[in-house]
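**User:**
Everyone, produce one record:

**Assistant:**
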Amino acid sequence: MSTSSENDAIALSALQHWIYCPRQCGLIHLEQAFAENIHTARGQAVHHLVDTPGYEIKAGGRVERALPVWSDRYNLIGKADLVEFHPDGMVYPVEFKHGAKRQKLHDDIQLAAQALCLEEMLNRPVPKGAIFHASSHRRREVLITPALRDLVIATADAIRHMLAVGKLPNPVNDARCKECSLKEMCQPEALTLREKQRQQRNNLFNPEA
C-alpha cells in the first residue's frame, strides 16, 4: 500500500478512474494494483498512437504529442495525448479513447484537467477540447464548463483525501463491474453480500436502530 499526504500531486488518470468508480481508483492508485482485460488492451493500443513525445506542423499550427502537463495551483500532474496549437492562438487538447463516439463523464473530466493545466502553464484560456474515439474515428468536442472545472477540483480533493487516509472506497457492484479488469481483486459481489449480512445482523439485534 502506498503512503500519501494531502499535499501530493494527483495524476490526471486518477480523476478518470475515480469518476468511473472510486474503488477502482483506490485499487490502482492506493494499492498499486492493475490487471489486463480486453478493454485495457484496446485502450493501450489506442494510446500507442500518441505515446511517443514529438510534434509536427499542420496548417500553420503545431501539434504536440504526449505533452507533459501540470498545475501547481491545483496540484495535478499528467500527460496530454495530443495538444493542437492553432495559428490564431487557440490551445486545443485532444484525448484518445477506444470505443465509439459517446459522452462519458470520466473521459471529459480528464480532458478538463488537461485544460486547467494548460491554462496555468501557458497563461491563456483553454475553453474546449475533444475526445477522439478510435472505434468510430470521430471527435467529440467538449466544452470546459465551470461545472466541469469544479468537478476536477472536487475530485482531486477526494482522491487526495483517500490516499492520505489509506482506505479503499466501498465497491459499487453494478454494471460497471462487468467491464472492469480489477473485478477479481475487488470482489464486489462478496463484499456487498458481507455488508448486507452485517446490516441484517444489526437489524436483528438492534431492531430500533
Observations:
- The beta strands are 10-11, 54-58, 61-71, 76-85, 91-97, 128-133, 138-143.
- The two ends are 35 Å apart (CA to CA).
